[in-house]
Amino acid sequence: MTGFVALYVFMLAGFAGWVIIGRVPAILxxxxxxGSNFVHGIVVVGGIFALLNAGTRLEQGIGxxxxxxxxxxxxxxxxxxxxxxxxxQTSATASRPAKTVRKHATPAKTPAAKKR
Amino acid sequence: MLTALPPFLIIATDLVAAxxxxxxxxxxxxxxxxxxxxxxxxxxxxxxxxxSFLYVFGVDPAARPHLAVNAGLxxxxxxxxxxxxxxGGKKVAMTAMPQMVAxxxxxxxxxxxxxxxxxxxxxxxxxGKELTVTLLGALIGAVSLSGSLIxxxxxxxxxxxxxxxxxxQVVNAVVMLATxxxxxxxxxxxxxGTALPTAMPGWIWLFFGGALLFxxxxxxxxxxxxxxxxxxxxxxxxxxxxxxxxxxxxxPALMIAGMVVGAAGLLLxxxxxxAMNRSISKVLFSHFGPAPAxxxxxxxxxxxxxxxxxxxxxxxxxHSVIIVPGYGLAVAQGxxxxxxxxxxxxxxxxxxxxxxxxxxxRMPGQMDVLLAEAGVPYDLIFQLEDINAEFEHTDVALVIGxxxxxxxxxxxxxxxxIFGMPILDADKAKKVYVVKRGEGKGYAGIVxxxxxxxxCQMVYxxxxxxxxxxxxAVRGLGAGPPSKK
Lengths: 116, 485
Prior knowledge:
- Chain A has 7 helices and no strands.
- Chain A has helices at 3-22, 29-39, 43-52, 57-85, 91-94, 98-103, 111-115.
- The relative contact order of chain A is 0.09.
- Mean pLDDT of chain A is 77; it is low at 92-116.
- Chain B has helices at residues 5-27, 34-51, 67-91, 97-121, 128-155, 168-191, 201-219, 227-248, 252-275, 280-285, 308-316, 327-332, 335-347, 366-374, 384-387, 409-412, 463-476; strands spanning 320-325, 351-356, 381-383, 396-400, 431-436, 456-460.
- Chain B has a 6-stranded parallel beta sheet with strand order 3-2-1-4-5-6.
- In chain B, β2 (351-356), α14 and β3 form a beta-alpha-beta unit.
- In chain B, α8 packs antiparallel against α9 and α11 (308-316) crosses α17.
- The radius of gyration of chain B is 26 Å and the shape is elongated.
- Mean pLDDT of chain B is 85; it is low at 288-297.
- At the A-B interface, α1, α2, α3, α4 and α5 of A face α1, α2, α3, α4 and α8 of B.
């Protein structure tokens, strides 16, 4: 990829991130920080590529840790974010015990919300 | 034809993954769709990771003899790292979320730095431009790794005191400049054609050592109240590092995801710093010092303790109550009991609202998450600008484990280190109850004038224990129908 195309990608991606986050209400700041933390876990893919192309012991060692850490970033980030977001519910759904609602991935789609 | 298929599949899947990341983040912008947003992003991640195994069809000739070992290492690392982090993320208490985010973020930074290290040690990048980008990503990633780990240690209570040394900023600047100089020398030497990066392992190690040291030095002096901003900065850092390494690896998915997070993290950092009325540079470079002694003298009045039961019953007969939760509530794990108490008040016809300061707790929005965990519907939770005008017309403000975010000194005392920070005007309510473990100060180390105010009474004790007493007291009155309204 030539340098300038890369710069275009960087510019547009940066702008997209800026715009998307700009509309987020403060109530979602923590899940969002966690969510964006999960998204940069994609680094694990780079780690996999680098480790598969490792030629020496040193590279293998570093690559192993790169994949290990990257996988931790992705898996942990997802687990934490998912747990946080599953807890958001409106008054309509809150009448049900919190624990049962939490098991559903999307509180907004629970039957209680549809009743209205 | 067969050889062209794997690269095509990888690129096509990465494109879909990049779209799903953007789409997922977009859906996280509203509480209604947020939960599905992370699922979309998760699908993208899973697909990208699975398809990356197709890279085995196009490895370097030099790495081909090691392919089986390498592939094995990839699988072990994925299962080990992913499994441990998944388990940790599922098990950890909601109150420990901030440090978990810091930890996972540091891991991402470390992975980016690791990729850069492999590029360097394997002499895979030679051009001046690529080498500069690699080193830049390595620097940012390594700083994010060590800095996030220190942030994690602080939030987790492993490190308890902000460590400040004389001339901190000079030391930091020297370390940073030295690291940049080493990096510059590496680029110069390699691009000048004198040597491959492999021939200079000492310099590469020195570069990473300097970057890691800088991250530690950067985090150590920063106090608890500024921690959310710091984590957000590192989140943006890791994104940036991932984006830069994506450029080096010619992987657009990494570039897009990394840069989106970099920009989003920067904006989030700004929003947070703004909520605290502190500039980002102030958070990073000038810290809450020890509180000057004169602040003790500006406070008039006395602390007036009250029994939890009396406070509970008083609120039962109030018309309106606004609850201001803070970190103390999180520490005491009192959110469930709090909502139980609130439901009792609601049953008695009391109008209850929650007022959440943007930086209450150790992370922006941490209180929202905590209340959500207890089952509090989010339409009862109000942000600072939406509710501040209501305190004047409210019977009782119940402050639970919050301190600096309700300190009127931020409005009145120009000498106070938190002067100018927007606060919740709890002091304007007709009556204020403050639930607090003891007479200690908040994270900023400042005496809180609110506690000494005429309309304020202190309820001492662990938030959860206090709430249990309040619940028992209100229940003791009998669950009669609303006597008013």
